[in-house]
From TrEMBL:
UniProt entry keywords in alphabetical sequence: Coiled coil, Nucleus, Ribonucleoprotein, Ribosome biogenesis, rRNA processing
Role according to the record: Component of the 90S pre-ribosome involved in the maturation of rRNAs. Required for early cleavages of the pre-RNAs in the 40S ribosomal subunit maturation pathway.
Quaternary structure annotation from Swiss-Prot or TrEMBL: Associates with 90S and pre-40S pre-ribosomal particles.
Lineage: Eukaryota, Metamonada, Preaxostyla, Oxymonadida, Streblomastigidae
Protein's cellular compartments: Nucleus, Nucleolus
Main location: nucleus
Coiled coil: 59-102
InterPro entries for the chain: RRP36
GO BP of this protein: maturation of SSU-rRNA from tricistronic rRNA transcript (SSU-rRNA, 5.8S rRNA, LSU-rRNA)
Record's protein name: rRNA biogenesis protein RRP36
Amino acid sequence: MGKKLKKSQKPYVVSSKQPFNPLEMHKQVKLPRRNDPRFDPLCGKLNEDLFNKSYGFIDELKKKELEDLENEEKETEDQEQRRFLRNEVNRRRQQIESKEKKDRVRVKVQKFRRKQRDLVRQGVKPYYLKRSDISKLEVEDRIEQLKDKGQPLKKSIAKRRKHLDSKQRVKMPRERRQINDGND
């Protein structure tokens, strides 16, 4: 045989028969624990009334920005820029309207709960609002808004009913849909 290799001259080979643990190769770095205040019990419950009182100025700022955007849209000559501004104005207007609608419904629910508290003090069994009851309150609010705007109530209700009917027709199986369309 020939000359033997020294230990330092042997090639370094990892045996495939030994189990390989990838965690030993890299040290684990411990990341700081992040807290989400929505789910952290240490942060307490959200008081919407206090939140709205504290940050009510933001709604006023949003309305002012909306007016500025509307003015900018009127002054703009470029059609593409005008289209972009119109979309932005519509988006912000819808945000403001949805927030106001949500606030109106929240106020109605609070009034109902106050009445229930007074009735409980008198000895009456309490009634808790279900989601369906809250949606009925939303419908009542929508009807009140239509009356305030002076829009015809029957026309808007008919339009809503037509919209819901078309949604149901889409959910219906195709065979039954064709049969029902023929009977109308």
